[in-house]
Amino acid sequence: IAVWKVSTARKGYVTPRGSWRPTRMHKMWYSRKYDNSPMPYSVFYHGGYAIHGTSAVNRLGRPASHGCVRLDKANAEVFFKAVSEIGMMRTAIIVEK
Q: Which of 7, 25, 35, 41 could cross-link 76 (Cys pair, CB 3.0–4.6 Å)?
């Protein structure tokens, strides 16, 4: 178990709350919806929502995203590798306030 600062949806956007299993993973993904923004170590869990790394580390701990859960890139890599080892079907993603 780890505790990391994250950024979730800023005003005007939503980070859905609930429980999911990961649906797909990409070591590097570029957002088709938001100007090809890089999303390293993406673990998608609910449609287009993902947990992924960010270079905007100064915003971690505050709302800043379009809805994804952003992590420091190094922490996103740790999470990505853990999900890879454990398996998507054995990983629970729980988003709560």
A: 41
Whether 15 contacts 49, CB under 8 Å: yes
Non-local CB neighbours of 3 within 8 Å, separated by 6+ positions: none
- Six-digit token string for 4: 């990391």
Q: What is the chain's alpha carbon radius of gyration, rounded to the nearest angstrom? A: 12
User: What pLDDT, in 10s, does the model give residues 2-55?
Assistant: 899 999 999 999 999 999 999 999 999 999 888 899 999 999 999 999 999 999
Instruction: Classify residue 47 as exposed, middle or buried by CB count within 10 Å of its CB (0-12, 13-18, 19+).
Output: exposed
Decide if 48 contacts 35 (C-beta within 8 A): no
In the chain, what is the greatest distance between 2 CA atoms, to the nearest angstrom?
35
Task: Provide the H-helix boundaries in 1-97.
Answer: 73-86
Q: β-strand 69-72 against 49-54: which pairing, if any?
A: parallel
